[in-house]
Amino acid sequence: MNNFTYHNPVRIEFGRGTIARLGKLIARDRKVVLIYGKGSIKSNNVYQQVTRALEKHAVTEFSGVESNPEYETCLRAVAEIKKCKGDFLLAVGGGSVLDATKFIAAAAHFTGAQPWDLMEHKARIGSAMQLGCVITVPATGSEMNSSFVISRRSTGQKLPLSSTRVYPQFSILDPETTFTLSEAQLSNGIVDAMVHVLEQYVSKESKAALQDRQAEAVLLTLIERASAILANPPDYDARADFMWCSTNALNGLISCGVSEDWSTHMIGHELTALHGMDHGRTLAVVLPALWKHQIKVKTPRLAHYAKRVWGLDGEGRSEEELARMAIEKTEAFFERIGVATRLSRYNITAGQCQSIADRIDMLGFKLGEYGAIGGPEVKAILKLAE
Questions:
Q1: How far is CA 178 from the centre of its chain?
Q2: What would the 3-class secondary structure string for 127-160 be?
Q3: What is the pLDDT of residues 131-181, one digit of tens each?
Q4: Which residue, 150, 178, 206, sits at the end of a domain?
Q5: Does 312 lie in the same domain as 204?
Q6: 79: Cβ contacts below 8 Å, ≥ 6 apart
Q7: pLDDT for 109-119, tens place per residue?
Q8: What beta strand segments (E) does 229-314 contain?
Q9: What is the CATH number of the domain that holds 139?
Q10: Is the same domain home to 277 and 314?
Q11: Does residue 133 share a domain with residue 53?
Q12: What is residue 351's predicted lDDT score, i.e. its pLDDT?
C-alpha cells in the first residue's frame, strides 16, 4: 500500500426530509446565493423545500447552469454574486450544478488575469467562498470531494481541477429527490459511479486489501441493485443505495494508498467537449476499448475484478482469458441498463475523433497509471470503440 493522507471535512445529511435542516446548517446572517440548473428543481418540489427551509435567510437566485457547466455561465454568476454581495453559495441540483458552484466559489476570489487560468494553467486557489449543496442526481460524487469539471464553449475545452478550498461545508442527500429522474439520467449515473470506482480499482497492484473490498462493495451494490434503481415506481431503498454508492465512489476513501488511472475520464471529457455526448455515455464507450488496448498491463487487475466482482471461476482459465471476460461482462452490463458502448451508436466514427488524439498530445503529459497513453494510443483506443 502506498503512503497517503486522508482528510474529508464534508458533513453529510442523508435521508428523507433532510432538506428542512438547511436553515440550521447555514447561519442566519449569511447572504445566500442559490445556484441551480434549468428549473427541474421547481417541478420536483426540491426548490419549494429549499426556499421554505431558508425563509428567514436573505437569498438571491442564479439559475441556468448547464449539464456540462460552462465557463461563461459561471462568470455571469460571479458578477451576480459581487452585485448582491453574497457570501455563501448553495448548489441545488446534480453534480454539474455543484461543479459550477465550486468553480464560482474560487473564481469569485480570484485576482489573476482571468479565472480560466484556474482550469487551464492550474493557477493557485488561495481562497474561495464557502458553499454547501443539496444533491439531486447521484453520479459524480462531487458532493463529498474537492474536484470539479468546467467546459469552455469558445475553445471547446472541458477541464478538471481539484482544490481543498472548495470542499462543500455540508451536502444534503435525500433519495426522494431522485424520484423524478429519467431512466437515462439514472443509467448514466450508474455508469459514472461504476467507472469512478474502476479508475481506482483496475490500476496498478497496490496490495491494499481493505480498499479493494470497499471498491468491490460499491461495484457489487450497483450491479445487484441496477434493476431496482431503474424501477418505476421508484424504490426508496434502492435509490438510497445508489445515492450513497455514488458518494462513496469518489470521496477519496477507496483511493487511499492506491494508484489511479483516470485516462477514460480524460478521453471522455474530450468526446463531450467536441461531440456533445453525455458524460456517462462517453465512459461506457471508452472504458472497454481502453481496457482492450491496455490488456497487457491491466490483465492482473482485470482478472482480479473478474473473480471478485463478476464471480468468474479461474479454474482452467488464464489470467488474460479472465481479463477479457471481465471486459465483456462490463460491456454487457452497460448495454443491459441502456447505455451503448460503441461510438457508432452515437453516429460518431473514429475518424471524427482524430482531434481528440491531437488534444491529448497537447496536454504535455501522458495518461494512465503508467503514463503511457498519448495521442497515438488514444487514436487506437477510439478505433477499438468504433
A1: 16
A2: CCCEEEEEEEECCCCHHHCCEEEEEECCCCEEEE
A3: 999 999 999 999 999 999 999 989 889 999 999 999 999 999 999 999 999
A4: 178
A5: yes
A6: none
A7: 999 889 999 99
A8: none
A9: 3.40.50.1970
A10: yes
A11: yes
A12: 87
Q: What is the pLDDT of residues 34-76, one digit of tens each?
A: 999 998 999 999 999 999 999 999 999 999 999 999 999 999 9
Cell numbers standing for residue 200: 481506482
- Any idea what DSSP says for residue 367? B
CATH code for position 351: 1.20.1090.10
> Alpha helix (H) ranges present in the chain?
22-25, 40-43, 46-53, 71-84, 95-107, 116-120, 183-201, 209-230, 236-249, 263-275, 279-293, 295-308, 319-336, 354-361, 375-384
Q: What is the pTM of this model?
A: 0.95
Q: How many Cβ atoms sit within 10 Å of the Cβ of residue 290?
A: 29
Backbone angles phi, psi at 171, to 5 degrees: -135, 130
Partnered with residue 325 across adjacent β-strands are none
Question: Which of 160, 178, 196 corresponds to the end of one domain?
Answer: 178
Full domain range(s) for residue 172: 11-178
Q: Compute the residue count for the chain.
A: 386
Q: What are the tens digits of pLDDT across the range 334-365?
A: 999 999 999 999 999 988 888 999 889 888 88
Cross-strand bridge partners of residue 384: none
Q: What are phi and psi of 211, to 5 degrees?
A: -60, -35
The residue type found at 146 is: S
Residue 2 falls inside a structural domain = no
In a shared domain, residues 287 and 362: yes
Single-letter amino acid, residue 282: T
Q: Domain check: are 245 and 224 in the same one? A: yes
